[in-house]
Amino acid sequence: MSDPKTISFLPTVRPLRTNADFHAVHVAAEADQHQVIAATHMAEKHGQVIGYASIGAVTPMLVWVSTKQVQARDSLYLLNMAECIAANAGVRQLMVPCQTDSPFHPFMEKFGYQAAGKPFDLFLKPL
Question: Do 35 and 17 belong to one domain?
Answer without folding.
Answer: yes
